[in-house]
Design goal:
The complex is a heterodimer of chains A (175) and B (236). Chain A contains one helix and ten strands; from the N terminus they run βββββββββαβ. Chain A has 175 residues and is mainly beta. Chain A is globular and about 60 Å long. A six-stranded mixed sheet of chain B has the order 3-5-1-9-8-11, with no helix packed on it. Chain B has a four-stranded antiparallel sheet with strand order 4-2-6-7, with no helix packed on it. Classes of the chains: A mainly beta (175), B mainly beta (236). The interface between A and B is large, with 50 and 47 residues.
């Protein structure tokens, strides 16, 4: 079986209007993939930047997959939340990106979006906070049922992921 | 001997902790150590003709914990250390330079648990106590070649204002009991941090036998630069 190592970091995020941010991340793969080592999902620390406006998480990702097929290449999905001084959390954006498919180190910028509600919900969000959230997380990385959503852009999450592939040439896979 | 090919690959990293940018703090020193998975071990210099037998793993450090901060063990390469104290230069750059060497070789059977370098920066506060100014971690790059990385440094922060004042006054800031927490992903959900500086590191990476074991690390890049650009570039 071919093996894939994903080794890198969720570096941080820019472009969000809120400042104390954290990110919940997860990896979704197809049925042919098996996770041999590593944790498939996690949550970063909450960072309040002192310098500049980029919130830094430096959250390590180290995953080891074995695969029998190319379908269902791993997708990393992210939810960025902000936490205020009272400890309340508010959604800042959803985003996903595919794990790169060529070996080496890659810098990724993942754009995010958040669902807009009705004008009442938007007004409430401006004053009180809160706002609509997705009921099921798989809408973040799948295209089905997206046509029902009306969303606005959030900021960008920056990742640096390194890919190490093993035995892909034995199966004739070029990447 | 190795009839079926190698089972172990080597990763040799050398380089330096080059400099730091902390706009608000001065007189800083840093400590670094490496955190790696269970399949990894640091090794002494390998002789060219043969791989060391599996039982002989170099001195000390056969298990993955390096929980202490001892003084430099020179016989094993420079895999952890404490730097000098540096002050900002008087010129316009206001540069904090350590130029502190790193030199370590690891051997492993599995890329899972790829080594990370964990840095902790300390400095004096207003009352003269030694307090932590930042923690940071980054994976050692895995493509052979030269890499420059600038990593953000953050400190844990307490939520309540009273606790912040008390810790400022007493000189006892929140710190991690074990700096290796910075290299792990689990258990960070509940921590609040403040990022307040950057440290620039240079790495030269050489690997041995990764390709023979079937690993493809991608194109070697000679000038990999990542992270924010540093306003004070040091001359090569």
């Amino acid at each position: 079986m071919a093996e894939v190592h994903v080794i890198g970091q969720i570096m941080g995020a820019t472009g969000f209007s809120e400042s104390s941010l954290f990110c919940k991340w997860g990896i979704h793969t197809g049925a042919a993939w098996k996770l041999l080592s590593g944790v498939r999902e996690g949550q970063t620390q909450v960072d309040t930047p002192q310098i500049g406006d980029m919130a830094y998480w430096s959250h390590p990702i180290d995953l080891h997959f074995a695969t029998k097929g190319l379908q269902g290449w791993p997708r990393l999905h992210l939810q960025v939340w902000s936490q205020d001084s009272f400890g309340r959390c508010q959604l800042a954006g959803y985003g996903f990106c595919h794990v790169p498919s060529s070996p080496g180190t890659h810098q990724l910028d993942c754009p995010t979006w958040r669902p807009l509600g009705s004008w009442r919900e938007q007004l409430a969000r401006a004053f009180v906070g809160g706002g609509p959230q997705l009921l099921r997380g798989d809408a973040i990385y799948s295209g089905a049922d997206r046509y029902r959503l009306h969303t606005a852009a959030g900021g960008t999450v920056h990742l640096e992921l390194g890919l190490l592939l093993r035995h892909f040439d034995r199966y004739g896979v070029e990447c | 001997m190795a009839a079926a090919g190698p089972s172990v690959f080597l990763l040799m990293v050398n380089g330096q902790v080059e400099s730091a940018q902390f706009p608000e703090y001065d007189d800083l020193y840093c400590k670094y150590c490496f955190v790696y998975g269970q399949d990894w071990a640091p090794t002494a210099m390998v002789k060219e003709t043969a791989l060391p037998p599996a039982a002989q793993r170099g001195e000390g450090h056969g298990s993955p914990e390096l929980g202490h901060w001892p003084s430099l063990s020179s016989s094993q390469g420079l895999e952890e250390g404490i730097s000098q104290i540096t002050s900002k230069s008087q010129d316009a750059r206001r540069a904090l330079v350590w130029n502190f060497p790193i030199d370590v070789t690891f051997k492993s059977t599995n890329p899972y648990g790829w080594p990370q370098i964990v840095l902790s920066v300390y400095g004096p506060d207003v009352f003269g106590n030694d307090v932590v100014r930042g923690y940071g971690a980054v994976h050692v790059p895995f493509s052979p070649g030269r890499h420059k990385k600038t990593i953000p440094m953050f400190v844990p922060e307490s939520v309540s204002k009273l606790q912040k004042f008390t810790s400022w006054f007493m000189g006892r800031r929140p710190e991690y009991t074990d700096p290796k927490v910075v290299a792990q992903g689990e258990g960070r959900e509940v921590t609040r941090v403040r990022s307040q500086g950057f440290v620039t590191l240079l790495f030269n990476v050489v690997t041995k036998d990764m390709r023979k074991l079937g690993y493809d690390t991608g194109p070697p890049d000679t000038q990999g630069v990542s992270g924010p650009s540093t306003p004070q570039g040091l001359p090569r």
